[in-house]
Amino acid sequence: MTIMTLAALAQDGELGTGGVRTWLLDNVVPLVLLAVALLLLWLGGGKGDNAGVMRRLAGVVVALAIIGLAVSGAGVDVGEWIAGLFTG
Q: Where are the bilayer-spanning segments (predicted)?
């Protein structure tokens, strides 16, 4: 390796998982949502079991809300609010 290549590889900066987290949020989460939607349509929609599809959809919405709280960091605020209800 040359000196310039080593200098480029050894740049200052923190190591972290920000890039992986962003990639997962931008690519994997939409693919999983698409797969869940297709499975819901295929499993329940074709048979006319609309009530079953809606029950599963409610579970998916709850799971998405939990993922949204975890990813945005708002879970801490929600936890503090709930604790404030009991502690005054």
A: 28-45, 57-76
Domain hosting 62: range is 34-88
Reference 68, options 81, 55, 77; nearest CA is 77
Residues of the chain with pLDDT under 50: none
Side-chain half-sphere exposure of 9, counting CA atoms within 13 A? 6
The Cα 67–Cα 73 span in angstroms is 10
The Cα 51–Cα 57 span in angstroms is: 10
Angle at 38 between CA 33 and CA 44, to 5 degrees: 120
Domain presence at residue 67: yes
The predicted pLDDT at position 56 comes to: 80
